Structure formats: structure tokens, C-alpha cells
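S.,

Sequence below, as promised.
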Amino acid sequence: MTTDTMDTHAPGRRSRRRQALNKVPEVTLYFWVIKVLCTTVGETAADLLNDNLGMGLTNTSYLMSALLVLTLVFQFRARSYVPGLYWLSVVLISVVGTLISDNLTDNLGVPLQTTTVVFAVALAGTFFAWYASERTLSIHSIRTTRREAFYWLAILFTFALGTSAGDLTAEKLNLGYWLSAIVFAALIGAVALAHRTLGLDAVWSFWIAYVLTRPLGASLGDYLSQPTADGGLGLGTVGTSILFLVVILGLVVFLTRTRRDVAEDDPLEAAGARWVSLREG
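The prediction came back faster than expected:
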């Protein structure tokens, strides 16, 4: 196991080998914007394939799951963070997470209250197993296959949980799409404020906000795509999906060219890796 330190002759620059250890982007404003856009696409694209194109929930689930597995194969084989590949994986896992929740509620008749609790328990179990195995939940230390597997499994459950929680809030609690979006945006703001002013742990702040962006994006997607009679703007799933996909593509191309979201390694992890490198050298 080897790593390189920062280039002391060029402050702010990272070595090529150190960059290659990171499989996820830096958490910047770009990250959160694309994440919300991906969650919106996950909501509208699932509805587009299922309803507008007449594929049905089951066939749509099979197709998108197969595409996700194929994309994740390339993601796992990549040696470093690749913006296009990473965010394609997020878009697809957003769709699949939505479909898992929809299958349970629509095909199997499981109540939204139950699916919300089940996915919350599944996510908590993933975090427990991840920490027990790796002693960290930091996304700045995703440099092994096992950690990346825990990472993507957690991402899947955040999307499924967010879908169920968002639907529960918007439909069962009768808050409506727009008000639901405001509620979840306010909760994300509260998490950010708690992190900055009350010292809420950075890792837990990230994961709590990550879960909350799913129902935020889903509520926005429903608000934009649903008919005005149902409380939406009536843009339709086709228009909303295309609009957000174009914006995502533009941002990903920008980040690919500028590399503004290349993540730093976790300092403690990097120090340990340097110690092992010196010992083996």
C-alpha cells in the first residue's frame, strides 16, 4: 500500500498517485447541486419509463438495475474518481432506489410508514457494519473495494429511504410537493448550521444531509412534473428529466475539465498509508 504526500514545492497541488486513491468527489457546492439534480432525475425518470413509455414497474426495475450493475462494474474498476462515471452511477442508483421503494409500496402493498422504517434500519445496519469493519465512515477514505462497496450500498439505502420518507411526507401527511421541499431544505440548513456552530460531527452531518437531499429532490421533481391540478407546475416527466439531465451533463463536463471536485484524502488515513509505505520501503 503506497501513497504520496503533498508536493511541498507547489502548495495546494496534489500528487497524481494520491489523487488515484480517491474514488469519490470532494464535497463542494457542486456536489450538492448535482446530488439534488440526480435525485430529481431519479424520481422523474422512474415515472417516465414506468408510466409514459409503458414499460411497467417490473420491467423498468429490471432494466435500470442491469444498467446500474454494469455501470458499477466500471466504477469499481476505475483507479481514480471519474466525474462522468461516478455521477452516472449516482443517477442510476437514484432511479433504482426509487423503484425499490415503489415496488414495495405499489406492487406489494407495503405501507410507506413501514418502508421508511425498514430502509432506515437497513441504512443504520450498513453504517454499523461499515464502521465495525473499517473504523471510519469518512468518504475521504474510499480507497479499497470493500469501502467502496459499503459506500454504494449506503447510497442505495439513502435513496430508497429518501423516496419513502418523501412520499410519506408529501402524500400521507398531505403537505404537498412544494411545502415538502421547503421542509426538507430547512432541515438540511439546520444540519449545516449545527455543523458550523454546534460542532456536529462532519461525517454524520454529511450523511444526514445526504439522506435529506433525496426527499428534497423528489419533492422538487414531483412539483415540476406533476399536473397543476395535483399541485405541480405541469412540466411533465419528459421535460423535467431532460432539463435536469442537461444541467447535470453541463456541470459534469465543467468538473471534468477543471477538476475542482477532486477530493483530499482523509488526513489520518493518509498518515497511516505513509507510515506503511515507509515501512515497506
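The chain has a mean pLDDT of 81.

Coffee later?
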